[in-house]
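HOLO CASE FILE
Compound: zinc ion
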Amino acid sequence: PALRARARRTLALTSAQFTERRMTAAGAPSPSEDFVPDRTINDAGHREELPGRTVRAEGAPATGDQTADRAYDWLGATFDFFETAFRRNSIDGAGLKMVSTVHYGDKYDNAFWNGEQMVYGDGDGTVFTDFTGPLDVTGHELTHGVTQYTANLEYYGQSGALNESMSDVFGSLIKQWHLAQTADRADWLIGQGLLAPGVDGVALRSMKEPGTAYDDPRLGKDPQPAHMDHYVDTHSDNGGVHINSGIPNHAFYLAATGIGGNAWEKAGRVWYDTLTGGSLATDVGFAGFAVATVQAATRLYGAEGVETKAVSKAWAGVGVPL
Ligand code: ASN
Ligand code: ZN
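Model generated. Tokens follow.
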């Protein structure tokens, strides 16, 4: 634990972040203790049974299985991100144990949050590689947990697409934070490195240019719209949750790049406050969510703040009315 705390100190708040923290948390006692993750990595041994056999508990040495050890490291990075950026203590904000199962199923082509834990397939090796590979995939799945404990966005239609978008937004922010990339330098891809060699594509999704991540006979073409003019009305995929998430994803990209700097500091704070602030209905649509982000930005930066204006402009840019 001592080693771990020291290591995490190297990612301590910048003085600007610290000042902002003190201002936003004025009156509240300044937190004196670090939060500590409690991770468990299980191995399903290529069967579809959960939770599988525990191969690494918190603080235990590396297993030697790159997949299990990556899952452990990416859970740690995601935990550290939520702590550092938003002073959130784990998925539920109250130190929830983080459980993951790796080697789930036979050539299983997905990763998911099942309401209690994260689960990773190995990929079939021809279309997808190991789902523990990209940090933002872990960030995406873990953020489904954060959403479940906060706005609990219903997983259908627009609220479902917002649920998906929250996972992409914070998944991307975790990667940007880990790489110390500003909004203009980030690739804004989700799952870069997950497509196997030979697949015609760069990632699962692009927040910068939704609809351009892949175009391959085995996968089809990336179906994501970047604007309400191209909203996809469908009953499949829970009413297009992984499709229409391109619209709020692109709105976040526009807000973050419009503001500039580190995306997690301002745009990320606005989205985080919106997600966790308790004002959203579980079946909120894009328009209701957009209004809530402008309200959150107004509380943080004022109605005339450049940040608030960038948020409003971002929603206009994807055709969502305020
Ligand atoms: N990887 C997908 C996701 O988290 C799995 C799913 O659709 N349940 O959205
Ligand atoms: Zn998801």
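CASE NOTES: The longest strand covers residues 39-43. The pocket of asparagine (ligand 1) is lined by residues 110-112, 140-141, 144, 164 (CB under 6 Å).
CLOSED: yes
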